[in-house]
């Protein structure tokens, strides 16, 4: 029988498309998100500042210091984790009074939520040195435009462009490619406003401790108000997709991963198939369909199918086989396109819970095989593909890649909260046992006792926090949860 139109799942697919359309609502209230991307956490506080100038930022910090208030930084709220929440508590505080004229509401009660997205834009471009300076609230989508207008690009870039540049750096956002680090590795300099109101510019040469400690700083070292990035001349990529079995992947793992500059994989546990994206630089002009040519309707149909199989779990294996081939055609199997179109998926993806661990590259194949075996043994119905990416080692203290080449394994489910939370707990335990480090912007529930051994510079990070912010002004719910709160907040 033709799936999905001639069987009982037709109605759920229609409902799923309607749900997808309904779920495209804007999360932004001006420059401040009202929730994180997955709508798991409400991002609110009684005192909200939407700065549009450096003076707005320093005034807010001065206010918080004077009245002994906490400050939580928010960019686009894209993270799955609770890093943009000001508190683990849901208890409301009294509403604030007064307005500073820049969209801020301040009084002497409550926590200051500093929403950075309106503090955005280009500061300067040095084409000779390939350096681009932007304000911290600039989104990656805006950054793409700035780079393109100046004939430049980044050779490291994630799949999603909603994040602010400061937020993406703070959480260790990454792309893929064994020869490339995470986004922080293209950082040349940053401007930082610390808890005492000091504005300083930091580079790896001028102050390596601050540079490597704050580069992936979880939003608690101060406000990163400006960043300068190492760019490269604009380039095109030839992308080729192949669909193979997981046995074929494991037999040729190193050859596949190291055979092209950029490699990522979407792996389906039901069909044991792997869709591999391989990209290399080319001087050819673009040809073939790009992600921009993929209609939103096709994405809604994709989400409609996901919704249907979340209702009828028995259909997951058959539906995932269809989805794998459906995605194989989005976009063309072979194409040449601009760097940003290949790295970045411009469409709104289906809302879903997500966890991600970076395991040592040497254990990557074994970790993937272990996940498949665990899913089989426990009869777990996985209704979305996993994403696999590769990132080179770096020197940033809380980086997933600190002194370690990694394989990032992202595990997803759709619209099945209870099943995902159980799966998440099991997979966290398994990947942790293989030396995996959790992505700071994804879901995880590990404690300081579990995390501290994974990050050799953990204590240095805490010491730097106490040096830059001795009274713990800057804090968020994630940090309260995974650090000794009495020390850092």
Features:
single chain; 489 residues; alpha+beta; 5-stranded antiparallel sheet; 16 helices; 31% helix; globular
Describe the fold and architecture.
- Helix content is 31%, strand content 21%.
- It has helices at residues 10-22, 54-66, 140-149, 165-170, 208-214, 246-251, 253-258, 296-311, 316-328, 339-343, 364-377, 417-432, 448-451, 458-468, 477-482, 485-488, and strands spanning 28-29, 32-33, 47-49, 71-74, 112-115, 122-126, 131-135, 152-153, 187-193, 199-203, 223-230, 232-233, 236-245, 262-268, 273-282, 334-338, 354-360, 386-391, 406-412, 437-438.
- 48% of the residues are buried.
- It is an alpha+beta fold.
- The strands form five sheets. An eight-stranded antiparallel β-sheet has the order 16-13-15-14-18-19-17-20. The protein has a five-stranded antiparallel β-sheet with strand order 6-7-11-9-10. It has a three-stranded parallel β-sheet with strand order 3-5-4, with helices on one face.
- A hairpin with a 2-residue loop joins β1 (28-29) and β2.
Q: How is the main sheet built?
A: 8 strands, antiparallel
Q: Which secondary-structure class do the elements indicate?
A: alpha+beta
Biggest β-sheet: strands ordered side by side in the sheet: 16-13-15-14-18-19-17-20
Mean pLDDT: 87
- Estimated helix fraction: 25-40%
Percent of residues in beta strands: 15-25%
Number of extended strands: 20
Spans where pLDDT lies below 50 across 5 or more residues:
1-6, 89-108
**Gyration radius from CA atoms, angstroms:** 22 Å
Q: Report the total helices.
A: 16
Q: What's the N-to-C terminus distance? A: 59 Å
Shape by Cα distribution: globular
């Amino acid at each position: 029988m033709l799936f999905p139109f001639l069987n009982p799942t037709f109605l759920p697919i229609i409902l799923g498309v309607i749900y997808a359309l309904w779920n495209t609502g804007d999360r932004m209230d001006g420059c401040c998100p009202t929730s994180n991307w997955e709508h798991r956490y409400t991002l609110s506080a009684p005192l909200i500042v939407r700065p549009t100038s450096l003076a707005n930022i320093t005034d807010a910090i001065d206010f918080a210091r004077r009245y002994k208030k906490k400050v939580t930084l928010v960019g686009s709220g894209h993270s799955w984790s609770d890093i943009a929440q000001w508190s683990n508590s849901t208890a409301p505080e009294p509403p604030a009074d007064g307005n500073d004229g820049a969209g801020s509401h301040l009084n002497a009660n409550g926590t200051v939520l500093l929403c950075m997205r309106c503090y955005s834009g280009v500061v300067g471009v040095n084409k000779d040195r390939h350096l681009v300076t932007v304000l911290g609230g600039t989104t990656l989508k805006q950054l793409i435009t700035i780079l393109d207008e100046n004939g430049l690009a980044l050779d490291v870039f994630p799949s999603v462009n909603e994040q602010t540049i400061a937020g993406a750096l703070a959480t260790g956002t990454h792309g893929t490619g064994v020869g490339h680090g995470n986004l922080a590795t293209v950082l040349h300099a940053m401007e930082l406003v610390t808890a005492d109101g000091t504005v300083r510019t930091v580079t790896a040469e001028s102050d390596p401790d601050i540079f490597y400690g704050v580069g992936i700083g979880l939003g608690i070292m101060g406000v990163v108000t400006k960043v300068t990035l190492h760019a490269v001349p604009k380039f095109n990529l030839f992308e080729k997709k192949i669909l193979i079995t997981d046995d074929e992947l494991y037999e040729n793992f190193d050859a596949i991963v190291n055979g092209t500059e950029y490699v990522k994989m979407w792996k389906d546990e039901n069909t044991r198939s792997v869709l591999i994206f391989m990209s290399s630089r080319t001087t050819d002009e673009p040809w073939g369909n790009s992600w921009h040519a993929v209609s939103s309707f096709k994405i809604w149909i994709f989400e409609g199918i996901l919704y249907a199989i979340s209702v009828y779990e028995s259909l997951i294996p058959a539906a995932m086989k269809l989805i794998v081939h459906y995605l194989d055609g989005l976009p063309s199997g072979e194409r040449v396109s601009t760097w940003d179109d290949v790295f970045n998926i411009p469409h709104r993806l289906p809302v879903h819970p997500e966890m991600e661990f970076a395991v040592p590259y040497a254990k990557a194949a074994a970790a993937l095989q272990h996940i498949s075996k665990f899913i089989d043994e426990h009869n777990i119905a996985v209704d979305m593909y996993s994403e696999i990416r590769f990132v080179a080692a770096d020197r940033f203290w809380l980086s997933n890649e600190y002194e370690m080449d990694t394989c990032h394994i992202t595990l997803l489910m759709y619209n099945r909260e209870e099943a995902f939370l159980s799966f998440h707990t099991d997979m966290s335990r398994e990947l942790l046992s293989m030396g995996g480090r959790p992505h700071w912007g994804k879901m995880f529930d590990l404690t300081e006792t579990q995390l501290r051994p994974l990050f050799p510079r953990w204590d240095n990070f805490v010491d730097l926090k106490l040096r830059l912010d001795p009274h713990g002004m800057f804090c968020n719910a994630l940090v309260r949860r995974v650090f000794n709160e009495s020390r850092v907040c």
